[in-house]
Amino acid sequence: MKWGVIGTGNMGEILIDAWMSSNVIEQEQLFIINRTINKAYTIQERYPGIRVCEDIHELIEHVDIIFICVKPLEIHPLLVDIYHYLRKDHCIVSITSPYSVSRLESLVPCQVARMIPSITSRSLSGITLITFGNQISKEMKGYLLQSSRLYSSAQLIEDNVTRMASDIACCGPAFFGFLAEQFIKTASEETQISEEIASDLTEKMFIGFGKLLEDGHYTLPQLIEKVCVKGGVTGEGIKALEGSLGGLFHELIHATHDKYREDIEKISKQMLDG
User: Fold this and answer.
1) How wide is the angle at C-alpha 123 spanned by C-alphas 119 and 128, nearest 5°?
2) pLDDT, mean over the chain
3) Measured on CA atoms in the order 145, 146, 147, 153, is the torsion positive or negative?
4) CA nearest to 224, candidates 245, 164, 232, 243
5) Pyrroline-5-carboxylate reductase catalytic N-terminal domain spans which residues (predicted)?
6) CA-to-CA distance for 164 and 166, rounded, in angstroms?
7) Under a CB-based contact definition with an 8 Å cutoff, are residues 104 and 114 in contact?
8) Strand locations in the chain, DSSP E?
9) What is the chain's alpha carbon radius of gyration, rounded to the nearest angstrom?
10) Which strands sit side by side in the sheet containing 91-94, from one edge to the other?
11) According to the 3-state scheme, what is the secondary structure of 241-262?
């Protein structure tokens, strides 16, 4: 099958890099387009076999699966533009959470899926969150699942947990990266360790931490228990965290869900106005 990517921004580019690294698709089978076309040609410099299209309708005509990698409010006008070029056997794949598959199905005359990636796909790991539309064929479901497993772990989810699943699997690297960055800065402010050394130690710790979990040596509770020797330094640190966290993660979840609902409302208004 031939794939198309509309939008080669951050996530579009990460997906392309993941696909090329995992050989999930041959370069010659991938067609890409971007509003700023030079960004697409920059990607083609790394992967010369990729086809860059300067006309979106040309891309639609050449491909079977169309990955929509643009901002949520750009999706509706895009789908209106390409509607009459879509075949029934096409499959539209959205990578953004505010568009449910049922809403997408109401806008196009073809198969629909939502596949929300993570930056971790760049290292051929992490999770792709997948929800299929009602009209998608069994064969297309199997093909998309098999393909996504070559560069990530595929996790089927229901629409009602989309935002929370995305917070964990997709936003999580940024959230925990931010916490780690604050830890590093505070360490250099409070002690004589440099930010450079603290950063290097933290990065290596994260790599080892991930491998412990990946290899199945410990669960998260077991890992905490093993490091927290009774009466030791780590235990005192955990107490400090427990006393300071308060409602931090409640606030985080409320913030992301409020933004999610706001995006859905904007999309609904946009569709009504359109």
Assistant:
1) 50
2) 95
3) positive
4) 232
5) 4-97
6) 5
7) yes
8) 3-6, 30-33, 51-52, 65-68, 91-94, 111-116, 127-132, 153-156
9) 21
10) 51-52, 30-33, 3-6, 65-68, 91-94, 111-116, 127-132, 153-156
11) HHHHHCCHHHHHHHHHHHHHHH
pTM of the predicted model, to two decimals?
A: 0.92
| pLDDT confidence bin for 21, thresholds 50/70/90 | very high
- Provide the 10 A C-beta neighbour count for residue 95: 22
Give the whole-angstrom CA distance, residue 201 versus residue 240: 21
**Token digits of residue 239:** 């107490």
Q: How far apart are CA 17 and CA 249, in angstroms?
A: 32
In angstroms, the Cα distances linking 201 to 62, 98, 119, 191, 215 are 48, 37, 22, 15, 21
| Start-to-end C-alpha separation, the chain | 33
| Structure confidence by residue, pLDDT tens digits, 31-63 | 999 999 999 999 999 999 999 999 999 999 999
pLDDT at 274 > cutoff 80? no
237-266 average pLDDT score: 94
Inter-residue contact 186 to 177 (CB < 8 Å): no
